[in-house]
Design goal:
By secondary structure, the protein is α/β, with parallel strands linked by helices. It has one domain (9-112): Response regulator (Rossmann fold), CATH 3.40.50.2300. Helices cover 35% and strands 19% of the residues. The protein has four helices and five strands. Helix 3 (66-75) links the parallel strand 3 (54-58) and strand 4 (84-87). It is globular, with a radius of gyration of 14 Å. It starts with 8 loop residues before the first strand and ends with a helix. The relative contact order is 0.18.
Length: 113
């Protein structure tokens, strides 16, 4: 019996190249195909072309910032039901429509020194 498995795809939106590389490396190790964006506008364009199973976004994006990116995701029919993971810390007082929040490894380790 042949069973086909759909390749899982993740979108990583982070302006920091090291953070994108690190997150991509971890997700690839978990079996994901990863598409990357360095800003929110590019991330939204990628969502027009890729069917993603999870979206990871830095909450402190420049240009089209993290909060605005999240607002735009909320109104897109194609992203409803896709788990959203925030990278970094959510601004206080702003509820985040996300499954969780993961501290950025580089920022966490540099603050520990």
């Amino acid at each position: 019996m042949h069973t086909s498995h759909k390749q899982r795809t993740a979108l990583v939106v982070d302006y920091d190249p090291w953070e994108r590389w690190f997150t991509t490396d971890v997700l690839c190790g978990l079996g994901y195909t990863v598409v990357n964006a360095s800003n929110g506008a590019t991330g939204l364009r990628l969502l027009e072309h890729y069917e993603c199973d999870v979206i990871l976004v830095d909450v402190s994006l420049p240009e089209l910032g993290g909060p605005e990116f999240l607002r735009q995701l909320e109104v897109m029919d194609s992203t409803r039901g896709i788990p959203l993971i925030l990278l970094g810390t959510s601004p206080e007082g702003q509820p985040a429509p996300a499954e969780g929040c993961v501290p950025n490894p580089a920022r966490t380790s540099s603050s520990d020194n």
